[in-house]
Amino acid sequence: MILLFVGPKGSGKDTQTQLLESSGFANISTGSLFRQEMQDNTELGMKSKQYYDAGKLVPDELVLEILKKHISKAEADDIVLNGVVRTLEQIKPTEEMLASIEKKIDKVIYFNLSDEEAVKRLANRWTCPVCNTVYHTLFDPPKVAGVCDKDGAALLQRADDKPDAVKMRLSEDRTKTGPVVDHYREIGILHEIDGSKSIEEVASELHELIKVFKEQQ
Ligand code: AMP
């Protein structure tokens, strides 16, 4: 089963993807794949950096390239495509690419969250530069402040989590991701989740939804 997660920055997509990853889903998060490519100084990473750091969307051809590179390595049948489709224009090429490897998006989960709540959350978000684990100083803090639980690296605030980049991204989200949500709602595969609920509440709602989706397959 392939799930596509859409929703504004800070709406909990990354956290829920990480939770599903620990229950066997492959995690294809384009945002974190771009971070990984930039960290490894690959050509793809270098080409994406200027857009990424400014909080802008990376051009579609780079998104498709990164998706193709990493999805072909995914071993699990259950996959979360987290933030992979963010504009109406990305839908067709993404679906064509998936079809070329005999895959398709089965369900789309829309994490709905107000801008106000998103800004509040993002100001407290810290990321491990080594393993990309995301922490939140209020909701999901590391055991030792400022240090990653998994590898002891000093946590950083992502360039795109800084206030100016956040505001730019939220307004881009609203204008660009809105039509993606409308499209999947129209074709009847969209499920909306209230992203303002707690991590546990959203995780349990997702768990129930996935159970139902699997029964329908
Ligand atoms: P995220 O980790 O989801 O907040 O994504 C971080 C950054 O990665 C975004 O601000 C974009 O620069 C880039 N990015 C990730 N996915 C996409 C996509 N589907 N289309 C364009 N840019 C993307």
TrEMBL record:
Binding of AMP, residues: 30, 35, 56-58, 90, 158, 169
Residues given in the record as ATP binding sites: 125, 134-135, 197
Matching InterPro entries: Adenyl_kin_sub, Adenylat/UMP-CMP_kin, Adenylate_kinase_lid-dom, P-loop_NTPase
Adenylate kinase active site lid domain location: 125-160
Any single Pfam family the record assigns to this protein: ADK
EC number: 2.7.4.3
A GO term, aspect molecular function: ATP binding
Region of interest called NMP, as start-end residue ranges on this chain: 29-58
LID: region residues: 124-161
Subcellular location: Cytoplasm
Keywords, in A-Z order: ATP-binding, Cytoplasm, Kinase, Metal-binding, Nucleotide biosynthesis, Nucleotide-binding, Transferase, Zinc
Keyword NADP assigned: no
Catalytic activity: AMP + ATP = 2 ADP
Description of its domains: Consists of three domains, a large central CORE domain and two small peripheral domains, NMPbind and LID, which undergo movements during catalysis. The LID domain closes over the site of phosphoryl transfer upon ATP binding. Assembling and dissambling the active center during each catalytic cycle provides an effective means to prevent ATP hydrolysis. Some bacteria have evolved a zinc-coordinating structure that stabilizes the LID domain.
Subunit structure: Monomer.
Record-given protein name: Adenylate kinase
Source organism of this protein record: candidate division WS6 bacterium OLB21
